[in-house]
Amino acid sequence: MLERSSEFRKFMDSRRSIREFSDKEVPEGIVENIVMTASSAPSGAHKQPWTFCIVKDKELKNEIRIAAEEEEYENYHGRMDEQWLKDLEKFGTDWNKPFLESAPYLIVIFKKLYDISDTGEKLQNYYVNESVGIACGFLLTAIHNAGLCALTHTPSPMGFLTKILKRPENERPFLLIPVGYPAENCVIPQLKRKNEEDVIKIY
């Protein structure tokens, strides 16, 4: 068990977010397996309050990119304070988001604030943010396990995703994750993760 946990730790420590994706095709079945792995996550009262939208259509990806860049432009030109912008400098990012088109898939996760019965009745969900957050953790792990790369993208506000993907009123966009292979000349910043002393407190 110790050996397995150590090997898995090393494997997950090799996971990195990327912003430069290849347009190389990924079999759809792999992405479906990844999503269903995410859907195996625990949730409040087992309500599974999520919808995973897999976007591969080029026109839809272009529409999402245009809308996301409009929001990101506003973020980089007024919404974000100086400290936030300074913290982002090491990533070399700006409002341009070409990965929203170059990645073969976008997985858009929606949280269900409530369910709707066949008769139109509102059915309560519990711990929605926590449940969907855990499922997204499963999703990122499954993506890495499949040998693919991802980016957790949050072009806030994300209401445009509801309109573009025509999702119902009980759903709200939670996270947008491009998925695919890294581009040939993909680069990533040199980052250092926190060590055990900074992460773990044993009582």
The computed structural class is alpha+beta
Q: Return the domain count.
A: 1
Spatial strand order of the main sheet: 1-2-6-5
The CATH homology group name: NADH Oxidase
Count of alpha/pi helices? 8
From the alpha carbons, calculate the radius of gyration and give it in angstroms. 18 Å
Low-confidence stretches: none
Helix content: 40-55%
**Whole-Å distance between the termini?**
23 Å
Supply the CATH architecture: 3-Layer(aba) Sandwich
Quick summary of this structure?
With 203 residues, this protein is α+β, with helices and mostly antiparallel strands. The protein is built from eight helices and six strands. It has one domain: NADH Oxidase, CATH 3.40.109.
How does this model look, in words?
It is a single chain. By secondary structure, the chain is an alpha+beta fold. The chain has one domain: NADH Oxidase (3-Layer(aba) Sandwich), CATH 3.40.109.10. It is built from 8 helices and 6 strands, in the order ααβαααβββαβαβα. It has a 4-stranded antiparallel β-sheet. A two-stranded antiparallel ribbon has the order 3-4. Strand 3 and strand 4 form a beta hairpin. Helix 2 packs antiparallel against helix 6. The longest helix is centred in the middle third of the chain and has 22 residues. The mean pLDDT is 96.
